[in-house]
C-alpha cells in the first residue's frame, strides 16, 4: 500500500494555555499548535511511523496557512487538506488546570471542515491505503456528513480496516439523541469502534443527555451491559475498544472473550490529547500486526506518555519513546 491511514474530519488551530494552573479568565499566554481529533491522529500516527493522510479543510486565511505548515512539518500528507473560500479555519482555546481541569472552548460557527464534499472524498487514494479512521464529529453537520459516508462505505467495500473514534463533541449535534442515532447507523461499516465510557453511553443509552450536558456521570454497570450487548450484536469481526482512562481499556468482540488491558500509573499533568494518542497507538500497532493485547498495551503507553506532558499535538510521543517507556515498565523490548 502507498499509504497506511486516512483520517477524516476537523482540523483546529489550538491555542493552548501556557499559564499552567491559572483559572481560564486569568490566562494571558497561549502556544499555537494544531489539533482536532482526526488531525491529531494523523500527526500522532505519523510520529509513530505511519504514512498518514489528513482529509480535512481549512479556510483561505492565515490560520489555514499555519495549519498546513504545521502538518507539513510533522510530515503528514496534506494533499487532501482543502481550502474553502469564504469559510474560516476552526479554532479552539484550551486552559490547563491540573489535575482535572482542562476547559475547552471551540469557535466553530461555520468552519471550513464541515464543507468537505463527496467529490473531494472521491479523490482520496482509498484503494492505495490500508485503513481509514473516521470520527464521530465528521457525521454531525454540513456536506462533510456525505463525504464521511462516502469514505465509510467505499473503504468498507474495498476491504480497508475501518476505525471509528466516537469523538463526542456535544455542541456539534442538534440534539443529544442525534449523536447516537447517527453513529449507530455507521457501525455496520466499521471494523474497530474506539470510545470513552462517556462516548459509549451517548452512543448506546436512551439517556444521552446524562453525558451530553456534562452534569452527570453514566451508570457504569448499566453501561458495561450496553457495550456487551452491542458487541454481541455486532457484525462478525467487529471489535469494540472501550477506553477507561487510568484503568486501561476493555476489548470486546474477540473470539476468546473480553480482554482487559491495564493502564499505567503516571503523574497526570494534562489529559488533553490522551485519547487521540491512545487511538493512534492502537491503529499503528494493529496495522503492524500486533495482537490485541500488545496493541492496546502500546496504546495505553502512548496515552500515559501524553498525559505527563503539556501541550496536545506537540506532546505526542515518537515510536522510540513508547518502546523505551514499555521496556522500562515491562522489562522487555517489543518489536
Can you describe what's shown?
There is one protein chain. By secondary structure, this protein is an alpha/beta fold. It has a single domain (3-7, 39-87, 110-330), classed as UDP-N-acetylmuramoyl-L-alanine:D-glutamate ligase. 36% of the residues lie in helices and 20% in strands. It is built from eleven helices and 13 strands. The strands form two sheets. A nine-stranded mixed beta sheet has the order 5-4-1-8-9-10-11-12-13, sandwiched between helices. Strands 3-2-6-7 form a four-stranded mixed beta sheet. Strand 4, helix 2 (62-73) and strand 5 form a beta-alpha-beta unit. Helix 1 crosses helix 9 and helix 10 (292-307) packs across helix 11 (319-330).
Q: Per CATH, what is the topology?
A: UDP-N-acetylmuramoyl-L-alanine:D-glutamate ligase
Strand content: 15-25%
> How many structural units, i.e. domains?
1
Q: Taking all residues together, what is the mean pLDDT?
A: 94
Oligomer: single chain
Percent range of helical residues: 25-40%
Give the topology.
Layout: E1 3-8, E2 12-17, E3 30-35, H1 37-47, E4 52-59, H2 62-73, E5 81-84, E6 90-94, E7 104-107, H3 118-121, E8 129-135, H4 144-157, E9 161-165, H5 176-186, E10 192-196, H6 197-204, H7 209-212, H8 220-233, E11 239-243, E12 249-252, E13 259-261, H9 274-287, H10 292-307, H11 319-330
Parallel strand pairs: 1-4, 1-8, 2-6, 4-5, 8-9, 9-10, 10-11
Antiparallel strand pairs: 2-3, 6-7, 11-12, 12-13
Helix pairs in contact: 1-9, 6-8, 9-10, 10-11
